[in-house]
Amino acid sequence: MKKGFTLIELLVVVLIIGILAAIALPQYQKAVEKSRSAEALILLKAIYESAERYNLATGLWPQSSEWDVLDISLDNLATGTYSGYITRDSKNFQYIIVNDTISIQPFDNSWAIGRAYPGFAYSDEAVRYFRCIPKNEKGEKFCKSLGWTKQANGWYLDN
Questions:
Q1: At what angle do helices 137-145 and 7-58 cross, to 10 degrees?
Q2: What is the DSSP letter of 69?
Q3: By CB neighbour count within 10 A (0-12 exposed, 13-18 middle, 19+ buried), where does 8 fall?
Q4: Burial grade of 44 (CB within 10 A; 0-12, 13-18, 19 or more)
Q5: Segment 32-64, tens digit of pLDDT
Q6: Among 44, 85, 88, 132, who pairs with 155 as Cys (CB 3.0-4.6 Å)?
Q7: What angle do CA 101, 103, 107 make, to 5 degrees?
Q8: DSSP secondary structure string, the chain?
């Protein structure tokens, strides 16, 4: 009697591995995206806090081309552009200062998280909280996955 596996047994094992991979891969990709986004949000908060310190020292808020006035190191981020504004770009995200708001968005532009400077014509929520704004169905799922408070115009994180 020969020892070994039959072709059918090998095919069944390959099929089972394929099914497990098909189930696990999307969950893995979501976990990786959420982890990258959490890291990016930490940097976004640090950038905003640096802008607040700049405001306390000068009475002004940094504008779109004034990344150098911030007191944190952004040397590991490349310089890019978005709609004419100077950005700082990581591998997966763009950090943007647009007039009165500091924000972040992925390069697929499916969502954006931002926070407005105090003293501008915004609601209290826009100034006091970071807000996730979905731009498509993928962004909607991402913003929902953060567990923030849902309101009519986005999801809010209470600082």
A1: 80
A2: G
A3: exposed
A4: buried
A5: 888 888 888 899 999 989 988 998 999 888 887
A6: 132
A7: 145
A8: ---S--HHHHHHHHHHHHHHHHHHHHHHHHHHHHHHHHHHHHHHHHHHHHHHHHHHHHS----TT-GGGSSS--TTSEEEEETTEEEEE-SSEEEEEETTEEEEEETT-SEEEEEEPTTSS--HHHHHEEEEEE-SHHHHHHHHHTT-EEETTEEEEE-
Residues of the chain with pLDDT under 50: 121
- What token pair was written down for 157? 């994180």
Give the list of residues 6+ apart from residue 89 with CB closer than 8 angstroms, or none: 77, 78, 79, 80, 95
Name the token pair of 118: 């105090």
| Assigned token pair, 19 | 């099914």
Tokens of 44: 């976004």
